[in-house]
Amino acid sequence: MIIGFILGVVGVVIGIVGSALGFLFSIVGSAITGVFIVMLTIGAILFSPIFLWLALGLAAVYMFRGMQWLKRELRD
Q1: Is the pTM of this model over 0.85?
Q2: Element (H, E) at 13
Q3: For 25-44, how does the pLDDT look when each residue is reduced to its tens digit (9 = 90+)?
C-alpha cells in the first residue's frame, strides 16, 4: 500500500519535471526559430536586388564626388 503511494508520488514528480523540461525546450525552440526568421528577413532585405542596386548607386555617387575632390586638389 505504501509502495503504491511512493510510486505514485514518484510518477507525479517525474511527470512534472518532464512537462517543465518540455515547456522549456518548447520556449527555447520558439526563440531559436524566431531568431532564424529575423535572420532570414534581414538577409532577404540586405541581399535583395533593389538594395544591391541602391548600394552600387551610392558607391558610384561617392566615387564620383571623390574624383571631383581629387581633381580640385590636383589642380591647386
Answers
A1: no
A2: helix 2-46
A3: 888 888 888 888 888 888 88
